[in-house]
Design brief:
With 350 residues, the protein is of the alpha/beta class. It has 2 domains: 181 residues, Rossmann fold (3-Layer(aba) Sandwich); 137 residues, Rossmann fold. It has 14 helices and 11 strands. The chain has a 6-stranded parallel β-sheet with strand order 8-7-6-9-10-11, with helices on both faces. It has a 5-stranded parallel β-sheet with strand order 1-2-3-4-5, with helices on both faces.
Length: 350
């Protein structure tokens, strides 16, 4: 079989400020275009990459192409598990839909971190299906270090970003710092969507990537406060802009940061971690030069796609298509699913 050179990505691309997956996949698409390895339509592609749970509106199209084109392979890019990351039982249905799609449609899986891979397998993904771990990476034309000398800045400047306003993105930490950080020494900026108001933290609405990167380069320290992340794009963007990462010691954060930043456990030691980062920020900044690049991530995706093309999965049956579609519909409206399940349970007890 001829090794493929054309990949098509199925995702709900947004050109406005959006989540990390959207930003990474846009950058990956640009990289594949630069390597003449991207197809703008599925008909001319030998590999299709599908992102997470964004297969629903394309399910019949995928079913048709996989059934009629025996040399087409599908790579499923997975994060989560959603139930863990978002801390909601409703997302258990999303994880079940993702696992069903992965079993029936995917030739192989790309996980965004080893932490996410291990936990996704415990939530139903097949450990024997070909897979690889590839961390996310940002667009290098946008996220790059500053060339300015910041050693004479009056304040140590901290920044955090989050598209999601989910409380588990670390708003317990942000609220605590808003009240207890020494603002005679530090400045703190939060960019994104917040469920709470701030008194001392400077708040900025979500920004397009170019403007976000400009803001990142004005700061010294990036604070990642999320309770769980499969692979934080915001963290990797900040590292690529040369900021010292201060990250919660959980999920994929230690895996991403390595020895180029400071780990902390929670409210009890966050200020100590920030002080340590401020004291050693120049030595830590030198370590962030060993950053995760799109050239590395894009090459890993392309090489894995070539391997996967040599052993495409047997096409899904009509039954598997229907089961996957039903689970996706349930994931789209978990409120209806849980009401139906409660009604069935009540009926069975009669």
């Amino acid at each position: 079989m001829t090794i493929p050179t054309k990949i098509h990505i199925i995702s709900e691309f947004k050109n406005t400020p959006w989540g990390g997956g959207n930003q990474f996949l846009k950058a990956l698409r640009d990289y594949l275009r630069s390597q003449s390895a991207y197809s703008e339509n599925i008909e001319k592609a030998q590999i299709v990459i599908v992102n997470g749970h964004q297969f629903g509106g394309h399910l019949w199209q995928l079913f048709y192409h996989i059934r009629t084109r025996k040399n087409l392979a599908l790579i499923h890019r997975v994060d989560g598990p959603m139930e863990v990351v978002r801390d909601s039982k409703d997302n258990r249905i999303v994880d079940e839909a993702i696992a069903q799609f992965n079993r029936s449609f995917a030739s192989a899986t790309i996980f965004q971190s080893s932490w996410s891979r291990d936990l996704c397998i415990t939530h139903g993904l097949d450990p024997n299906k070909p897979h690889v771990v590839v961390n996310n990476a940002p667009d290098p034309s946008i996220f790059y270090p500053t060339t300015l000398n910041q050693s004479s800045d009056r304040f140590i400047k901290i920044i955090s970003t989050s598209w999601s306003s989910n409380w588990r993105k670390g708003f317990d930490i942000f609220q605590f710092l808003d009240e207890h950080l020494d603002f005679s020494r530090y400045q703190f900026t939060f960019i994104g969507n917040s469920p709470v108001g701030f008194r001392n933290i400077h708040y900025i609405q979500p920004l397009p990537s170019n403007e976000l990167a400009d803001e990142l380069r004005k700061h010294h320290i990036f604070l990642q406060a999320s309770h769980f992340e499969a692979c934080s794009n915001s963290l990797i963007e900040a590292i690529n802009c040369g900021l010292v990462p201060v990250v919660r010691n959980n999920s994929s954060h230690p895996e991403i940061v390595g020895d180029s930043g400071i780990l902390y456990e929670g409210i009890e030691d966050i200020i100590k971690a920030i002080d340590s980062a401020a004291k050693g920020r120049f030595s830590f900044s030198a370590k962030t030069s060993q950053k995760i690049t799109m050239a590395w991530a894009g090459s890993a995706y392309l090489n894995f796609a070539k391997e996967v093309s040599l052993a495409p999965l047997a096409p899904p049956s009509l039954y598997e298509y229907l089961v996957t579609w039903v689970k996706w519909k349930m994931a789209s409206r978990p409120d209806i699913f849980f009401r139906l399940r409660a009604l069935i349970g009540n009926w069975q007890r009669l």
